[in-house]
Amino acid sequence: MRLPVLNVEDCLKIGERLKRLRMINSLTQEELASRADLTKGFISQLENDATSPSIATLKDIVDVFGVSMQEFFSDTDDDENVVFGKDARVQATDDDEKIKVELLVPGAQNREMDPVLVTLEPGEEMDEQQFHEGEEFGFVLLGKIQLRLDDRLHTIKKDECFYFTSDKKHSVKNIGKTAAKILWVVTPPTFYY
Amino acid sequence: MRLPVLNVEDCLKIGERLKRLRMINSLTQEELASRADLTKGFISQLENDATSPSIATLKDIVDVFGVSMQEFFSDTDDDENVVFGKDARVQATDDDEKIKVELLVPGAQNREMDPVLVTLEPGEEMDEQQFHEGEEFGFVLLGKIQLRLDDRLHTIKKDECFYFTSDKKHSVKNIGKTAAKILWVVTPPTFYY
DNA sequence: ACAATAAGTTTAGAAATACTAAACTTTGCG
DNA sequence: CGCAAAGTTTAGTATTTCTAAACTTATTGT
User: Fold this and answer.
1) What pLDDT, on a 0 to 100 scale, did the predictor assign at position B43?
2) In the CATH scheme, what is the code of domain A89-187?
């Protein structure tokens, strides 16, 4: 039996495909191993291209994911993602910016909502510069914030939320002593950061 | 490493797929072996499911055929029918109707064009009642017809053709003394008979 | 901050097999 | 029929697939 040649692994990317599928399905290596009747050590080796599975074993694994061999080797992303873990987040702001905005569902085409995670350090404020149509919903996961809608101020604490139409000028400021995190959902999707 | 389980071989049919591809490419086992840097004995074993290749080796083999791993594991019969004889025609009109319309390429899903054969007895007319988007092309195989587009009339004889956008009201009439036959192609496919 | 646990990685090696070389069998052709 | 081409089978070596378990890193709760 042949050693996997580096260029084959490169172009087939078996490890990468396996890891991606595992993340999409929110499984640990141990859970996947258990379902495919393998060991977690082997799953780790596969994901890191330290070894290659037999075709039969690969089939067992992709069966756990409910994916065909054809789909597994497909280079187009046909399967709409339903579950998005932390690693799927796309940061929409630079690391040097104090405000951190992360897209929770990247690739928002064909969707009605755009959920993002906003992180504000103490004292920082996020301004909305543009009006747009639609509605916004926010849930404060951490900290205490002040929401300004036109000329009115609202204090919102952890586990409280807000909902307003996007035709008002609005901004959010962290008025607490620790970082604030807001789960924010916009409909229809609009890119404004 | 796991033995190939029988049901895996059954559903993946690796040997069968390999043999079919080899036949399509008119290669002997020895030629294929030579091109993939393997032995003919091994090819024979693979085709008879006596053993299973590693993924890397499978990739080498399908590369010889110019096929991707995705295509290799595809369950759809990729070789689309290209030739449609008379026996493949599907009549879209009843026998008691004077106008005869036959689909030339049945199962038109996933196609950009819908070709039909229209037969008109002398003096008969085929009306288009509905507007729709798209384009239409026609070739007069037999006879002489009159094409009306909105308020304009066109006489088209055997071996002449027409092409227009479908946003016009249109109809066709046989103005000859013998039956007329028109090969008519509509894009995108629309069912209007 | 720290401890405990979850999650992932690495190591050593047993068992299995991927693949070979060559002998054997079948098929096709003149 | 004889011969060569094509395919199959056999025996075995080198390699790898996959394991169990130790180790490391990451995460969570107090």
Assistant:
1) 93
2) 2.60.120.10
Name the residue ranges covered by the structural domains of chain A: 6-72, 89-187
Name the fold adopted by B6-72: 434 Repressor (Amino-terminal Domain) (1.10.260)
Domain B86-187 has CATH 2.60.120.10: yes
Can you tell me the ipTM of this complex?
0.53
Q: Which one is predicted more confidently, A32 or A155?
A: A32
Answer whether A4 sits within 8 Å of B55, measured CB to CB. yes
pLDDT tens, residue by residue, A128-166: 645 566 667 777 777 888 887 777 777 887 767 777 777
Residue B57: list chain A partners with CB under 8 A. Answer: 1-2
- Give the pairing of strands A100-103 and A90-91: antiparallel
**For A3, which residue in chain B has the nearest alpha carbon?**
B56
Q: How far is A11 from chain B (nearest CA, A)?
A: 10
CB contact under 8 Å between A70 and B68, yes or no, is no
**Using 50, 70 and 90 to split pLDDT, how confident is the model at A125?**
confident
Which residue on chain B is closest to A4 by alpha carbon? B56
CB contact under 8 A, A8 and B59: yes
Least reliable range by pLDDT among A55-59, B7-11, B20-24, B157-161: B7-11
Residue type, B54: S
Closest alpha carbon within chain B to A9? B56
Q: Which of B2, B12, B56 sits opposite A52 (nearest CB)?
A: B56
Average pLDDT (A100-112) is 63
For B134, residues 6+ apart whose C-beta sits below 8 A from its C-beta are B165, B166, B186, B187, B188, B190
Predicted local confidence at residue A11, as pLDDT = 73
SS (H, E, C) A60-105: HHHHHHCCCHHHHCCCCCCCCCCCCCHHHCEECCCCCCCCEEEECC
Average pLDDT, rounded, for chain B: 75
For the beta carbon of residue A173, count every other beta carbon within 10 angstroms.
19
- A55 with B53: Cβ contact below 8 A: yes
Which residues 2-41 in chain B have a CB closer than 7 A to strand C? 2-4, 33, 37-41
